[in-house]
Amino acid sequence: MNITINVKVNGVKYSNTVEPRLLLVHYLRDVLRLTGTHIGCDTSNCGACTIHLNGMATKSCTLLAVQADGMEITTIEGLAKDDQLHPLQEAFRECHGLQCGFCTPGMIMTAADLLQHNPNPNEEEIRTALEGNLCRCTGYHNIVKAVEFAATKMKKEVAV
Amino acid sequence: MSTNGLIGKSVKRVEDKRFITGRGKYTDDIILPGQTYAAFLRSPFAHAKILEITTEAAKAMPGVIAIYTGEDLREVNGVPCGWQVNFKDGTTMKEPKHPLLAVDKVRHVGEAVAIVIADTREHAVDAAEAIMVDYEDLSCVIDPLKAAQPGAPLVHDDVPGNVCFDWNLGNPPGEVDEALKNSAHVTTLEFVNQRLVPNAIEPRSYNSSYDEANDRYTLYTSTQNPHLIRLLMCAFVLGIPEHKVRVVGPDVGGGFGSKIFHYTEEALLTWCSRKTRRPVKWTATRSESFVTDAHGRDHVTKAEMGFDNEGRITALRVKTYANLGAYLSTFGSCVPTYLHGTLMQGLYTTPKINIDVTAVFSHSTPVDAYRGAGRPEATYLLERLIDLGAQELNIDPAELRFKNFIPPFDGVNQPGYQTQVALQYDSGNYEGVLKKGLEMAGYENFRNEQKANSNGKLIGIGISTYIEACGIAPSAVVGSLGARAGLYEVGQVRVQPTGKVSVYTGAHSHGQGHETTFAQVVADKLGIPMDDVEIIHGDSEAVAFGMGTYGSRSLAVGGSAIVKSIEKIIEKGKKIVAHKLEASADDIEFANGKFTVKGTDKSMGFGDVALTAYVPHVYPKDLEPGLDFSSFYDPANFTYPFGCHIAIVEVEKATGKVQLKRFIAVDDVGNVINPMIVEGQIHGGVVQGVGQALFEGADYDENGQLTNASYMDYCMPRADDLPMIETGSQVTPCPHNPLGVKGAGEAGCIGSTPAVVNAVLDALWKGGYTVKDIPMPLTSERVWKAMQ
Ligand code: FES
Ligand code: FES
Fold first, then answer.
1. Which A residues in the span 1-60 are in contact with B, Cβ-Cβ below 8 Å?
2. Which of A127, A137, A134 has the alpha carbon at shortest distance from A98?
3. Per-residue pLDDT at B480
4. Quick one: average pLDDT of A11-33?
5. Residue of A99, A103, A109, A127 to mutate for B, most B C-beta atoms under 10 A
6. Cβ–Cβ gap B683/A139 under 8 Å
7. Which of A85, B18, B87, B764 is the most buried (most CB within 10 A)?
8. Which atom of ligand 1 lies at the shortest distance from residue A44's CA?
9. Are B340 and B358 in contact (CB under 8 A)?
10. Inter-chain touch A76–B22, beta carbons under 8 Å
11. For the residues B54-69, what does the mean pLDDT come to?
12. Quick check: B384 and B757 in contact, CB under 8 A?
């Protein structure tokens, strides 16, 4: 029995009929074709699929599409506002926080959640916050730098 | 000829835009019209006879288009091995067929037994679960030493003793035995370099289609070398015409070696797409990746290093058993031999060296190149031995290294250094990197602090000084050593009529940032803005040919091919300008994007020259129009980056928990085009090497089950396990390629592992625990046990 869900993704309303077993990450990738959200594992350990669900960083492989019914979702594609990159997106480029780019959307979404709750994190807090996201390329060094860079930039923007 | 200063600058990456906005295009992101999905039924046994496969019920399930088993592919070739190594007696290595689907027998957990093609991924998986296979479980062997024992279960009936080949390199064994016998001290170490799972975060993914009307195939694949895959698949496996096959490696989410190889699934999906006349896509689940991506390392070694009374190394004798897994992967044979044995000289003047390698099959996932491929194993061996030697001789490990270093040589005024194990090093200043590393680490202070040991903590410092061979490689040399391919690279530079430049490279970027580094080289050499240059790679239809990216070869070989083409462009440009400005071509100079007649103010801009080449109204009679050159660059030698890595650790007495406090990496990778990117490569490599030292390892049980085949169980370094990496550099240019570059992709991973292990053992030793070795990974449990 397929089920109809209504969700708002990156500000756009969608209504789709889906199989109850369809994972949210597959719904985003295959149905909505938002392929910026990646899949790196099948045990919810890599964080490549991280999105914001009602504003909270969530691994979209850990829930079914039907569980997201009625909710608001932001994916990496919706993070930039009015063609203006999110400070974290800029920071990842500025600090060389990515290499192959596969973990990057998940990293950015997780870091964005951190900065919402803690605009002024120290290195240890950043590392702890990113502990659920695997990156095999960067050794995390420049990712941590990027988050620090974005935090500083966002503070400045608020101050202005 | 540097003209606008772009070479050497930390230019921000041009490829980043698409990745930070979620617009990268990886293979699994592609859905083709009429797309179907494949799922595999894989063996749950390490070794079993296939008695019967029943697919009827599965075939009747919703959405199923086709199901194939090994029986359907009996006549199809297996995937080939790209490097032939001969037995010591000159006979060819054993090359059992590596079938696309298992026939009669399965030889490792995860080997594919059947493929289902269905209209959705879910339907394919459902049907795969409904296939019934009757197996007869057989006894298996995983450990390479046990596999080589008489009476061990055979992986292939026609490979006696499971030995694929044995191999020896260096000075005659008798001479080495003699030198060891005459040594004042011999340090002996028996150890395991454990098996690792590469774990690129993007799982392997393929999407293959067949266009019947034009008899053409297209394969999208998460590969590091699309042209090589096309060649192997067409010529060796499927026997389909190469010119009718397009292979594309789009954005690829990391490789680390594991995406070099031609995998069975690539050929099988292509075969299926023709059978079904539908595009077929498959993306590995992480569980599948763990048991089917080629693994790395897995050596069991005994090594002996002799010293004279002054601490000078007299000889080195090595015996390694290398585990190849159940089948020969594409480069499985050359990793423990030509990428490992040839590095036994290290940075030291060791006069007598002999290494003996026995490569064996076992009932496990095939083993092949993983970041560093053979060189991390060689470095681990040497750097652990010299450190242990220092402990035993009671000499400071830094001092012992200084005593034994090959003196500096630049390869121009001083010749290259001929090793005892076939290679000739290009240029080096080994004491330089160690000096710098010690300085950055504050070595003496640390030693004093350690002696004072005021707070009762176990702290240790570990050094590793490494050399590696990369920029592979001169085709004639590797050909004589058994490579079945040339290892040149192709670089085409197409100047468009408006002066914009398209560059086609056979190298492939899967995180290395070629679109930036290569564009820097081109823009700098042509004196034009970087925005005017685009780097195109990864598509066999666009790029003439290519050998791909591995062995830290992209810039040294691929970059050099591009430089060769640029030289041809400038050369031709001079002729065009000479004709237009009525001067002699010898009098034309090129700098900063401008052609000038020597000693005059008459000049032509690069854009004007391009336009003239395509609108040749006033043009030399004997010159072809157009400004487009392609070059093959075959390097004269390998390149030899080197460096010094230093780890500082703290070991918790009560639990054995190791904390990495600081990590210092001083790497000499020759000239550097983009320091930011090179540092990034070092960071990533270092952390992978730290992963091997402290966290990672494939755990097979005696039944051949990989017991930690998920991210929940296989421990990889995470952000909160690590300190910041302190990097330093030294530049000793490579004397034999036009950019003077050596390669930086693997250095981090090669140097770091022994530094960490040496640091832990230093902490224990200095704390009064005489521990000779702890098998990696150095988990709390293992360290604690060693202390008891
Ligand atoms: S795919 Fe969701 S955590 Fe790995
Ligand atoms: S950038 Fe490749 S996995 Fe993080």
1. 19, 21, 26, 29-30, 33-43, 45-46, 48
2. A137
3. 86
4. 97
5. A99
6. yes
7. B764
8. 3
9. no
10. yes
11. 98
12. yes
Identical fold, B31-138+201-254+259-292 and B296-406+417-473+637-787:
no
Closest CA to B511 of B543, B542, B466, B554: B554
- Is the CB of B22 inside 8 Å of chain A's CB atoms? yes
DSSP B462-528: EEEEEE--BS---HHHHHHTTBSS---EEEEEEE-TTS-EEEEES---SSS-HHHHHHHHHHHHHT-
Q: Are B38 and B280 in contact (CB under 8 A)?
A: yes
Question: Which residues sit with their C-beta closer than 6 Å to ligand 1?
Answer: A 39-41, 44-49, 59, 61
In the predicted model, what is the mean pLDDT of residues B14-42?
A: 98
Chain segment B269-307, per-residue pLDDT in tens: 999 999 999 999 999 999 999 999 999 999 999 999 999
Whether ligand 2 lies within 6 angstroms of the CB of A144 is answered as no
**Chain A residues 79-118 within an 8 A CB cutoff of chain B:** 79-80, 85, 89-90, 92-94, 96, 98-105, 108
Q: Which residue has the tokens 């000779």?
A: B772
A85 or B452, which is more confident = A85
Domain boundary pick from A24, A57, A76:
A76
Residue range of the domain that includes A146 = 87-159
Tokens of B718: 């995470």
B560 touches chain A (CB under 8 A): no
Q: Which two tokens stand for residue A32?
A: 């909505």
Instruction: Choose which CATH entry (3.90.800.10, 2.40.50.140, 2.60.40.3140, 3.30.365.10) describes domain B16-22+488-633.
Output: 3.30.365.10
Which of the listed CATH numbers 3.30.365.10, 2.120.10.10, 3.40.50.720, 3.40.630.10 matches domain B296-406+417-473+637-787?
3.30.365.10
pLDDT band at B192 (very low <50, low <70, confident <90, very high): very high
- How many Å lie between the centroid of ligand 2 and the Cα of residue A98? 6
Same domain as A37, residue A9: yes
Please report which confidence band the pLDDT of residue B2 belongs to, taking 50, 70 and 90 as the band edges.
very low
For residue A82, being part of any structural domain is answered with no
Domain boundaries, chain B: 16-22+488-633, 31-138+201-254+259-292, 296-406+417-473+637-787
In this structure, are A101 and A130 located in the same domain?
Answer: yes
Q: Is A156 on the interface with B (CB under 8 A)?
A: no
Q: How far apart are CA A25 and CA B609, in angstroms?
A: 52
Q: Is A147 domain-assigned? A: yes
Asked if pLDDT for residue B1 goes beyond 70, the answer is no
Q: Cβ–Cβ of B201/A89 closer than 8 Å?
A: no
Q: Which of B209, B529, B186 is nearest to B385 (CA)?
A: B186
Cα B342 to Cα B660: distance, rounded to the nearest angstrom: 31
Q: Does A130 touch chain B (CB under 8 A)?
A: yes
Percent over 70 (pLDDT), chain B? 99
User: Is residue A119 included in any domain, yes or no?
Assistant: yes
